[in-house]
Amino acid sequence: MAKINRLFVILYAILFLAAGLAGAFVSLDSYWAFFRLADRVEFSSMIGMFVFGVPILLYLSILCFLMAYKNQPIRMSNKLSKSLTILFAMGVIIGISSSVYVNHSLSNKGYIICDKISWMSPNQYVNNSKLCQ
Predict the structure, then answer these.
(1) What mean pLDDT do residues 41-59 have?
(2) Number of Cβ within a 10 Å radius of residue 34
(3) How far is residue 50's CA from residue 44's CA, in Å, rounded to a whole number?
């Protein structure tokens, strides 16, 4: 039976866990800012789909922790991984469509889109042009 390097597996588990929690926080914070019509709303399709990738990252984190605990490779559940992949694929579609909806909705409510720093950064919608940085 193959032995694993516990330190690297634990580091990967912590990385997956941190990425999942950070992604969930950023995505849910952006959705929350949109729903409460905050003065500044940051949103993009990438942020919209982050929350749907969190279950995959948490599952990978759990698998890594179990590998480190048992000190042997662990197989992924085919049914669960397929379900999480389908959830993420649906999240991509929902993220893109929610980005279009947020853009349309906030534009109709009088929000202004600030200039982007880079093409990868999310759109910043503000209700006052002085809030653009």
Answers:
(1) 90
(2) 19
(3) 10
